[in-house]
Design brief:
Elements lengths: L3 E5 L4 H12 L3 E6 L2 H14 L5 E5 L5 H12 L6 E4 L16 H27 L3 E5 L12 H21 L5 E7 L20 H12 L9 E4 L7
Parallel strand pairs: 1-2, 1-4, 2-3, 4-5, 5-6, 6-7
Helix pairs in contact: 1-6, 3-4, 4-5
């Protein structure tokens, strides 16, 4: 197997754009999502458009620690990825003081704990290999507090903190760690919002930023990438 990238939540939006960008460069793909039909369509599309690229796709709900571990073990049987992108996430609006019970647990489990467990599943192999690049898909909400951000913002602040800690831990092992912090990006999560497309970042621009950060010399790391719509935050 040649170089490979693992992207969680790879069937839509930013995850799909990253997969397509790296497949274009000949990377084999490992990914997961909650919908089996979406995974099958993605696999067929990528392998058809990029002959020679292999796609491993497994249904998994990463809000569940047991399914994170099951996916990790199945993926490890295929490859230890050169690039790991923790992209899975869920957004439920609300305020910390009155959002529905369970929002905090769901978003922390999906947005943060899944990344924690997946990193731990692969990092020892990366350390032994002395190479790898881990990307955490954060958010502007992890930098700037705003009303109605609630537990989503809490999870993204925590993701940024975890990624900073990981960067320090993995420096001596030649493993790069990068936080991607996008603003409003044109994905299905904004469906139904009455705003022009010009107010959003194209998902392909996020993917290009990930590729550019990965594609530097071993002597250089991009620690954080902050990406906003040109016209400002929504």
């Amino acid at each position: 197997m040649g170089k490979s990238i693992l992207v969680t939540g790879g069937t839509k939006g930013i995850g799909k754009a990253i997969i397509e960008r790296f497949a274009k460069e000949g990377f084999d793909i490992l990914t997961c999502a909650r919908n089996q039909e979406d995974l099958e369509r993605l696999k067929a599309s990528i392998e058809s458009e990029y002959p020679g690229v292999r796609v491993f796709a497994k249904k998994a709900d990463l809000s569940r620690a047991d399914e994170v571990r099951s996916f990790a073990e199945a993926a490890k049987a295929v490859a230890i990825p050169d690039v790991l992108v923790n992209n899975t996430g869920v957004f439920l609006p609300g305020a910390v003081h009155d959002e529905p019970a369970g929002n905090f647990e769901l978003m922390m489990q999906t947005n943060l704990f899944s990344a924690y467990h997946l990193i731990r599943a692969f990092v020892q192999d990366m350390i032994q290999r002395k190479s790898g690049h881990i990307f955490s898909m954060g958010s502007i909400a992890g930098l700037t507090a705003y009303p109605n951000g609630g537990s989503y913002a809490v999870s993204k602040w925590a993701m940024l903190g975890m990624t900073k800690c990981l960067r320090e831990e993995l420096k001596p092992h030649q493993i790069k760690v990068t936080s991607i912090l996008p603003g409003a990006t044109l994905t299905e999560s904004w469906a139904g919002v009455d705003l022009p497309v010009e107010r959003f970042i194209p998902a392909e621009d996020i993917a290009e930023s990930v590729w550019s950060a990965y594609n530097l010399s071993p002597r250089t790391v991009v620690e954080e990438v902050i990406i906003r719509p040109q016209l400002g935050d929504i």
